[in-house]
Amino acid sequence: MSRLMPRQPVPALRVSTLAGDWDLAAQKPERFTLVVFYRGLHCPICKTYVSELDKLVAEFAARGTGIQVLSSDTRDRAEAARDNWGLANLNLGYGLSIEMARSWGLYVSTSRGKTSAGIEEPALFSEPGLFLVRPDGTLYWGSTSTMPFARPHFREILGGLDFVIKNDYPARGEA
User: Fold this and answer.
1) Residues 6+ apart with CB under 8 A from 48
2) Cα-Cα-Cα-Cα dihedral of 52, 108, 138, 131, to 10°?
3) I want to staple 132 with a disulfide (CB 3.0 to 4.6 A). Which of 32, 93, 109, 138 is the partner?
4) What torsion, rounded to 10 degrees, do the Cα atoms 6, 17, 114, 147 define?
5) Closest Cα partner for 69 from 86, 83, 51?
6) Helix spans in the chain (H)
7) Three-state SS for 117?
8) Looking at the domain that runs over 14-164, which CATH code has it been given?
9) C-alpha angle with apex 24: 147 to 18, nearest 5 degrees?
């Protein structure tokens, strides 16, 4: 597992999405691209988390921030997540390889069978991660977890973005 460093380039990220292919290097947001890795359809915490983000897409856009949400799920599972979770604003990415997940510093878990949502976990899947990437492809901020619990709150990230924008606050943690 690699460790990403602020102000350094992030790994290439090209994934299939429900709207077609997506490439991080081709994104040209005003300030950031928010890349959110979720565990998959099987995760009830992901449903709540991703649904919250779906309601805030316009607020991130107002701060010059594009969004991509993705998992190692199959296309069918990504479609089921979109439909079952009522996602109207996010374009879900799918098919993230375990190797790519590891290159982003994500933790990987093995299946423990059906979850409390009654859905079978994939054989291998990544745990959550969230990254803000600058238009030049360097890491501004990142957070990973070994568990589905205690993720960064999107409203707090919006507040942080307001501070960052107002104060031209640099990336931290690079030393």
Assistant:
1) none
2) 10
3) 32
4) 10
5) 51
6) 44-54, 57-62, 75-85, 98-103, 154-167
7) coil
8) 3.40.30.10
9) 75
Q: What is the pLDDT of residues 27-72, one digit of tens each?
A: 999 999 999 999 999 999 999 999 999 999 999 999 999 999 999 9
Q: Is 175 exposed, middle or buried (0-12, 13-18, 19+ CB in 10 A)?
A: exposed
What angle, 0 to 180 degrees and rounded to 10, lies between the N-to-C axes of helices 75-85 and 44-54?
70
Nearest to 67, CA basis, from 107, 95, 36: 36
% helix / strand / coil in the chain, to the nearest 5?
A: 30, 25, 45
Q: Say what the pTM is.
A: 0.96
| Two tokens, residue 169 | 């606050």
The CA distance from 116 to 124, in Å, is 18
Give the Cα separation of 14 and 27 in Å (integer): 11
Distance CA 62, CA 82 (A): 23
